[in-house]
Specification:
This protein is α+β, with helices and mostly antiparallel strands and about 325 residues long. Helices cover about 25% and strands about 15% of the residues. The strands form four sheets. Strands 2, 3, 4, 5, 8 and 10 form a six-stranded antiparallel beta sheet that branches. Strands 1-7 form a two-stranded parallel ribbon. The longest helix is centred in the N-terminal third of the chain and has 17 residues. The two termini are about 20 Å apart.
Length: about 325
């Protein structure tokens, strides 16, 4: 596994950052966010989950997908906490993404918390040989869905959407973390598959609170197995430009409310920022079913014109 290339020295140089993003499909920044604040946010979320019975062991709630985890009250409480929701509004992160996408870029109000349990190594009766079939929260899950190589274009069907993956604790290589395929965004799409640990051409690192990895929606990525003894906590925040249609469910929530999700909850917080006015909203599945159009950053492989949204998309 290759080491991620740190782009921290390029912050403020838009041309250099866009050049590296166009070639590699990702940008990694060590300590781009305040480490103490990020560590405190992770500890708050950890306490909320532990109070609800979440642990690294087999007891308590477990889930293979974010949607399954939302069935658990403690997990839902963590996802609506100010400590978690504040993160994508932090000025260093907003400046960074707007430097890439433009001044009207915004993050989707629907944010994704990841709480990943350890996997037993293959051959020990663990989960490595178990194919995920879908489990309810509270049941012992199979391999987490994020372990499959996938593309975040399936999240909302918005070309040039960027994802920021943020660790909420120290994540050494033993706990896994995120892996990306540098340059993989220049190839056509492939079906989801479990990333082999010895597969060449992939990059990851040991992560710490404050680190940020930004990757393009056509960049192949996957979570590595958690072979440690801790619950692995991280977060995904997705971003797009305001002049493109946005996936309705990621702005107003799955119930299709008329107002921005969490707007009423956080509108009095000094850090909160609403989505841009007059944003065009469309159903997520409708947007993601259409092959991606031209990118602002790089030539899109013609193989993407054969894109079909998988019936059970991983994201």
């Amino acid at each position: 596994m290759l080491q991620l290339q740190d782009s921290s020295s390029l912050i403020g140089d838009r041309d250099a950052l866009l050049g590296r993003l166009s070639v590699d499909g990702y940008l990694y920044f060590r300590a781009a966010l305040p480490p103490a604040m990020m560590r405190a946010a992770g500890q708050t979320i950890d306490r909320q989950l532990r109070a609800g019975g979440w642990s690294a062991g087999p007891g308590g709630p477990q889930a293979a997908t974010f949607r399954e985890a939302l069935a658990d009250p403690a997990f839902r409480k963590a996802t609506i906490s100010p400590a978690f929701n504040h993160i994508p509004y932090l000025p260093p992160l907003r400046r960074l993404i707007r430097g890439l996408l433009g001044p009207q870029a915004f993050s989707y109000p629907a944010k994704v918390l990841r709480a990943v349990h350890p996997e037993a190594p293959a051959g020990l009766g663990g989960l490595d040989g178990f194919r995920w079939r879908g489990r309810r929260a509270g049941a012992r899950p199979g391999r987490p869905r994020g372990r499959y190589v996938h593309y975040d274009y399936a999240v909302g069907g918005v070309q040039d959407m960027l994802t920021t993956w943020v660790p909420l604790m120290d994540i050494p290589v033993q706990l896994g973390g995120l892996a990306v395929q540098p340059g993989g965004h220049l190839a056509g799409p492939r079906p989801p598959r479990v990333l082999g640990l010895r597969e060449p051409g992939w990059a990851s690192t040991g992560y710490h609170p404050g680190d940020v990895i930004v990757f393009h929606c056509l960049t192949p990525h996957a979570a590595l197995p958690n072979h440690g003894a801790e619950l692995r906590l991280s977060a995904d925040f997705r971003w797009q430009r305001a002049d493109q249609p946005a996936p309705r469910e990621l702005v107003t929530g799955p119930a299709g409310r008329p107002a921005e999700v969490f707007g009423r909850l956080f509108r009095d917080e000094p850090w909160w920022e609403p989505v841009p006015d007059q944003l065009t909203l469309c159903p997520r599945a409708e947007l993601a079913a259409v092959p991606p159009g031209p990118s602002r950053f790089f030539p899109v492989h013609p193989g993407w014109q054969r894109w079909h949204l998988p019936a059970d998309a991983v994201h």
